[in-house]
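User: Show me a protein chain along with its predicted structure.
Assistant: Here is one chain, sequence first, then structure tokens.
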Amino acid sequence: MQKKENSFSNAEDEAENDLCLELARLCDGLSYISETDAAMEVFVGQKARRISREEILSQTGHGDFEPIEEISIEGFFRKLTTVREWYNAQQVADAGRCGELKKLLQDSLTDIHVFQIGRIQIGIFVVGLDPSQNLVGIKTKAVET
């Protein structure tokens, strides 16, 4: 990463780094459960003026031909944050961390979108813009046959 010269930019870099570290801490050990379990990971893209289907396809290395669907952040996190009566202590703790993750994303990013890209093996990206207008968020995968 190239260092910027003025202190304001350094403060922005530090804030971005702090956000990524906190996202990584919350994602550590969390899985998105579908027909397979996939790790939840930090996603850091490049600058974007706005978030669009074209932008996310470009920044994630997918072609324009890939099927893409947008869902709400509430829809994505609903099953991850709902605690069932039969959950064990770890599952309850994971649901709580997913709630913290959702709150961190909502508090730290603007223009948040959730994109599902592909068929059968689906890339899921929960992204928004940080104060420097970089595309930041989390990514995971789902398998749906």
